[in-house]
Amino acid sequence: MSPVEGYHAHVYFDAQTLEQARALCESVAARFGIRMGRVHERPVGPHPDWSCQLAFDHAQFADVMLYLALNRQGLVIFTHPVTGDDLADHTEHAIWMGGVRELNVEMFKK
After folding, report:
1. Whole-number Å distance between alpha carbons of 65 and 60
2. Which segments of 4-46 does DSSP mark as H helices, in order?
3. Is the pLDDT of residue 107 over 90?
4. Is the pTM of this model over 0.90?
5. Which long-range contacts (CB under 8 A, 24 or more apart) does 32-35 make?
6. Please, what is the angle between helix 18-32 and helix 61-71, to 10°?
7. Is 79 helix (H, G, I), strand (E, B) or coil?
8. Tens digit of pLDDT for each residue in 55-78?
9. Structural domains in the chain?
C-alpha cells in the first residue's frame, strides 16, 4: 500500500446550497486549521458538481470526517487519500457521504 500523504474532502453543492457549503467549508477550515480551496461554481477536474476542497493530514482524519458527517446537512461529500495514485485515490480508495456521484476519471488513466 502506498503511504498516505494526506486527504482531500470535496464538498459538493449547487446554486441553492452554495452558501451552506461555503459556511461548512469555512467552519471546518477554522475549527481544524486546515486548508480550504477555492469555492468552484462549476465542475472542476473529475468532479461532476460544483465543489470546494478541504485538505488535511492523517492525524486530523477522524475528527474532520466526524465533523463533516455530523454537519453536512444533506450535502454530498467525497473524500479520498492522497497516495500519488490519482486513479486509485478517486476510485478504489473513495469515501462517500450522502451518495455516490460518477466522477470523470479519464484524466487519471495512463
Report:
1. 8
2. 18-32
3. no
4. yes
5. 32/56, 32/60, 32/63, 32/64, 32/67, 34/60, 34/64
6. 150
7. strand
8. 999 999 999 999 999 999 999 999
9. 6-108 (3.30.70.1240)
